[in-house]
Amino acid sequence: MPLDDCLNALQSAIPHLTRSSLYRCLQRHGTGRLPDVEGDGPAKKKFEAYPIGIFHMDIAEVRTERSKVHMFVAIDRTLNFTFVELHEKAR
User: Fold this and answer.
1) What is the band of 3 on the pLDDT scale with cuts at 50, 70, 90?
2) Contact (Cβ atoms closer than 8 angstroms) between residue 57 and residue 45
3) Would residue 49 count as lying in a domain?
4) Which DSSP letter does residue 13 get?
5) Domain check: are 61 and 32 in the same one?
6) How far apart (Å, rounded) are the C-alpha atoms in residues 4 and 81?
7) Is residue 15 part of a domain?
8) Is the pLDDT of residue 80 over 70?
9) Which residues form the domain of 18?
10) Is the residue at 28 inside a domain?
11) Same domain assignment for residues 33 and 2
């Protein structure tokens, strides 16, 4: 049950109950979250094995206070190395 629903149900019986105090109480007693169930999430995949020198490159537009810049990212998955450069123009 969502926290807000619990709060609405209990506030008639406990008028001074706040959302944060209810949350802290549930956390203290270990009931703030549902237990994790194995197999719930998607299976984790490992990256494919690549020879040294093969890298993946991405380009993204990033907005700053002054203007927008283009971010170039090169990732070498074999060496776990990442290189990033910011440029005003994408050429």
Assistant:
1) confident
2) no
3) no
4) T
5) no
6) 44
7) yes
8) yes
9) 1-37
10) yes
11) yes
Residues with Cβ < 8 Å from 17, sequence gap 6 or more? 7, 10, 11
Closest to 7 (Cα-Cα) out of 24, 35, 62: 24
User: How many structural domains does the chain have?
Assistant: 2
CA gap 81, 47 in Å, rounded: 14
Does any domain span residue 46? no
Tell me the pLDDT tens digit for each residue of 11-37: 888 889 999 999 899 888 888 676 667
DSSP string, 31-88: -SSPPP-TT-SPPP-PPPP--TT--EEEEEEEE-SS-EEEEEEEEETTTTEEEEEEES
- Residue 34 has a pLDDT of 66
N-to-C CA span, the chain: 52
Distance CA 5, CA 19 (A): 10
Cα–Cα dist 62/84, whole Å: 13
